[in-house]
Design a protein that fits this description.
The complex is a heterodimer of chains A (397) and B (447). Chain A is mainly α. Chain A folds into two domains: 319 residues, Formate dehydrogenase/DMSO reductase fold (Up-down Bundle); 74 residues. Chain A is built from 14 helices and no strands. In chain A, helix 4 packs parallel to helix 7 and helix 9 packs antiparallel against helix 10. Chain B is mainly α and 447 residues long. Chain B has two domains: 306 residues; 104 residues, Cytochrome Bc1 Complex, Chain D, domain 2 (Orthogonal Bundle). Chain B has 16 helices and two strands. A two-stranded antiparallel sheet of chain B has the order 1-2. The longest helix of chain B is centred in the N-terminal third of the chain and has 35 residues. The radius of gyration of chain B is 25 Å and the shape is elongated. Classes of the chains: A mainly alpha (397), B mainly alpha (447). Chains A and B meet through helix 3, helix 4, helix 5, helix 7 and helix 13 of A and helix 1, helix 2, helix 3, helix 4 and helix 6 of B.
Chain lengths: 397, 447
């Protein structure tokens, strides 16, 4: 595919806002999506391991059930957070995304139904483990493998989009059109690197978990140091493995000595030192988020440069700016996103720290946020109808 | 030479790729409508439990909440993006048109989703962990946010039918696209259905309670709620069909005789079901309630969604993107040009960038292969192409016809846009000839 065709495949309607904003939002939201992918797979993997240990070890019993809960919530979050990068990528890289979605159309369908079965089985696993059922490990393992397989399919989409020179060959090998949507071309090292990041992420999460439970009387010191020590070991091992895989991937794509790769190597090393030595694990997690943002940026750096070299530049995508809907987004993001998520996060934090029922009505911060949230949502609904009726009357009369 | 930005074709044998989206959509609608309806019901129950100081209702809410979490959020949150994915594979330019119009509306909806997903866990798991007053506020906020997601998506799916006036085509503005003629009737139709679904799910949960008095009280309440929801839904459906475009009305009049009897039977069956719940709550047990949920899904939702998809034809978006990826009219506000004339001038083989070089010129050797490809590109979004095809099988329409008759149909009906629910597609003689030759070759031979 040459630049002329790639530009032809762009949506004629143009972009409703500046491409750099979509690109930035893509990098940011992919990082948060990936963080929960890693946490989900990591905690699920650890819970399967714990399933074998929990019969003889009470610490593992507690940890396994908590890892299961963590995985369950993380899968939900990774799904919802995954919608955003999906949205932004097809705004600016629509030729790439839609081409790959059609030539791999059957995999698109398989992805959705595998995810549905995999996550439903997770709940089955959760209840089987609760009942101490002997089949829980098998159910958990199948669910885990299905979710990893979903990751593999998404990975295939990500690598196929950056190979426009092969699209025609995949769609019509030897000039014979294949509409079955079965194109599937993974890149092993890149996939392994991404998936192995689950190990350090769950390790660092365990450090946070240990620190968070310190003030909770329900958990004794032995359990907390058990969780923290395992976390540190897993985190360091996982970071070393991930660093090696990243270097292999960088070598494969001829970016071994690229300045961006070097920044990532340094970040890995800093994170290993933090994981080993820092007492405040929340700072280590902050460093982890920076590393994942860098990795997200690196993926985009590769894609942008590859496409630019072919002659497709997202920065010259025609603009057709749409102010009303961006205003709605920004106001909703700041008000509902800010207050709503902070309200629930604050409450969850305080519930986790409290030893009985939390009387949040006596907590000034939570009460103010709860009241603000109800006002925000009510005003939002009023504005929606006012805006809607005004538009409808304007266009109908 | 002018070319057009069509994408490659994905075709799912026997069913057709668009119906994969329809199936995913039906599952999603069952789950998502249940979840929004359940959020409203949850707020109602929490309000009652708090104001009347009835702790036993919290137990019911906990049970209901687990169901809400497992069924509607797991299924809904996956099939939601699932519709998007499958629609992308089936109609990439249709989805692109929606994305490039409504990206910020979707981003706004995403903010609501994030709040909902963290909210639903808090809602269920905090029932006995925080004070009831704060929990009540959380349920109110959750219900409003859930309805908010409907407010946002409804403008987009209503636009898929049509904006209902000329303003959008001239301005390209999101407001003009989003708040079209069908948006509000469609919104209230779905709110009614959601309320009904919350009652239907509520009946399943209530019928499994062990406290007989509470069980009967809740079954009665769920019966009333379902009845009200169903009533709103039926009334708003009638309002909705007055706002759809002429081509949709025509299609509706074709499909109506087939579906009207089923609809009447469904309304009677469910009225009786809800009346039984209100008047004789002890008759309602769990297996019965579960069966009734599946009755709605199979006989109510699937035909309903199929109808909504069907009556939108020949378009998939806003009465300007045809189901076969071709732009069917000018949209000056979005710099979109009608592509029908470009195809008429140069032929589909020349303007579609995904045609391999060896098929760009028709020869006696490749004629059938080209004919098959052109038929797939032009027709397969709505028609299955196999002799055994399940949905709108194409070949069935040509049984008993020879190549010239098939070609005449194409030249005098398709090329002129004479059939209002089929895309206008005018191809050069040799391309129609190749299509007709391939279709003829697939027809059962008379013995």
């Amino acid at each position: 595919m040459d630049a002329e065709i790639l530009n032809l495949l762009r949506d004629p309607a143009g972009l409703p806002f500046y491409p750099i904003v979509f690109q930035g939002l893509y990098i940011l939201t992919w990082a948060f999506h990936a963080l929960f992918v890693f946490l989900a797979l990591g905690s699920m993997g650890l819970s399967i391991f714990g399933g074998f240990k929990q019969k003889s070890d009470n610490n593992w019993k507690i940890l396994t059930s908590h890892m299961l809960q963590t995985g369950k919530i993380s899968v939900s979050l990774l799904i919802v957070l995954g919608v955003a990068p999906l949205l932004f990528t097809q705004v600016i890289y629509d030729p790439n995304w839609y081409t790959v979605n059609t030539i791999s159309g059957l995999w698109v369908v398989i992805f959705i139904y595998t995810l549905l079965v995999g996550y439903s089985m997770y709940y089955w696993y959760y209840y089987a483990n609760k009942k101490q059922s002997s089949s829980s490990s098998i159910i958990g393992t199948i669910s885990f493998l299905l979710l990893v397989f979903c990751g593999l399919i998404m990975h295939v989409f990500s690598v196929q989009v950056i190979q426009p020179e092969k699209w025609m060959q995949w769609y019509a090998p030897n000039g014979v059109v294949d509409t079955s949507g079965t194109t599937f071309n993974p890149e092993t090292i890149r996939f392994l690197f991404i998936i192995f990041l689950s190990i350090p992420v769950v390790g660092l999460f365990l450090q946070n978990y240990g620190d968070f439970l310190k003030t909770n009387e329900k958990f004794d010191e032995k359990f907390i140091s058990f969780a923290r020590n395992i976390g540190t070991k897993i985190a360091i091992l996982g970071l070393v493995l991930s660093l090696a895989l990243f270097a292999s991937w960088a070598y494969e794509i001829d970016k071994l000595a690229d300045i961006y790769s070097i920044i990532i190597y340094i970040s890995f090393i800093v994170l290993i030192l933090f994981a080993k030595n820092l007492k405040n694990s929340y700072l280590t997690t902050a460093a982890l988020i920076v590393l994942i943002l860098l990795i997200s940026g690196f993926r985009e750096y590769i894609r942008y440069n590859l496409m630019f070299d072919i002659g497709y530049d997202i920065y010259n995508y025609p603009l057709n700016i749409e102010w009303s809907s961006i205003t709605m987004f920004v106001l909703t993001f700041v008000s509902l996103g800010g207050v709503g998520v902070s309200f629930i996060a604050t409450m969850a934090w305080k519930v986790g720290k409290s030893n009985g029922v939390l009387d949040a009505s006596k907590d000034r911060t939570i009460t103010i946020m709860a009241n603000m949230l109800l006002w925000i949502l009510s005003v939002w609904c009023i504005v929606y109808f006012a805006w809607g009726f005004f538009t409808l009357f304007k266009n109908s009369l | 030479m002018e070319q057009i930005g069509m994408f490659p074709l994905f075709y799912f044998p026997e069913i057709g790729s668009a119906w994969i989206m329809g199936i995913t959509g039906t599952i999603h609608i069952l789950a998502s409508h249940t979840s929004v309806g359940a959020a409203l019901l949850f707020a109602f129950l929490a309000h009652k439990a708090y104001k009347e100081d009835r702790p036993e209702l919290y137990e019911y809410m906990k049970k209901y909440g687990m169901f809400l979490l497992i069924f509607s959020y797991v299924v809904g949150s996956i099939t939601g993006p699932g519709i998007w994915y499958t629609a992308t594979a089936a109609s990439p330019r249709g989805i692109s048109a929606l994305i490039h119009n409504f990206v910020w509306v979707w981003a706004t909806e995403w903010v609501f989703f994030v709040f909902e997903v963290v909210g639903v866990f808090a809602l269920v798991y905090f029932i006995n962990k925080i004070d009831r007053k704060t929990h009540l506020k959380l349920t109110y906020a959750f219900a409003l946010a859930s309805v908010g997601t409907l407010f946002l998506i409804i403008g987009i799916i209503s636009f898929m039918m049509w904006p209902g006036n000329d303003a959008f085509y001239q301005t390209g503005g999101v407001s003009d696209a989003f708040f079209g003629l069908t948006t509000f009737p469609h919104l209230f139709l779905r709110i009614g259905f959601m309320i009904m679904m919350s009652g239907v799910i509520g009946l399943i949960i209530a019928s499994s309670l062990s406290d007989k008095e509470l069980k009967n009280e809740l079954i009665r309440k769920m019966g009333v709620i379902s009845f009200i929801g169903g009533f709103i839904s039926v009334i708003c459906f009638m309002w909705y069909i007055t706002t759809i475009p002429e081509n949709a009305k025509l299609l509706l009049s074709i499909y109506m005789p087939q579906i009207i009897n089923t609809k009447i039977v469904l309304v009677i069956v469910f009225s009786l079901y809800f009346a039984t719940a209100i008047l004789k709550p002890s008759f309602i047990n769990r297996p019965f309630a579960v069966v009734m949920l599946f009755v709605i899904a199979i006989f109510g939702l699937w035909p309903g969604e199929k109808l909504r998809e069907s009556i939108r034809k020949p378009y998939v978006v806003g009465q300007y993107v045809y189901s076969n990826q071709i732009m069917g009219r000018d949209v000056p506000g979005k710099n979109i040009k009608n592509e029908v004339d470009i195809i008429e001038k140069h032929g589909l083989l020349k303007v579609n960038v995904w045609i391999p070089d060896r098929l760009k010129t028709i020869t006696p050797e490749n004629k059938l292969e080209v004919g098959e490809l052109l038929t797939k590109i032009s027709c397969s979004n709505c028609h299955s192409l196999e002799p055994t095809g399940k949905y709108r099988p194409l070949l069935k329409n040509f049984v008993g016809q020879d190549k010239e008759m098939i070609k005449s149909f194409m030249q005098y009906s398709l090329a002129t846009g004479a059939i209002p629910y089929m895309p206008k597609i005018s191809l050069p003689d040799e391309e129609f000839d190749a299509m007709a030759a391939w279709i003829e070759s697939q027809l059962p031979k008379e013995k």
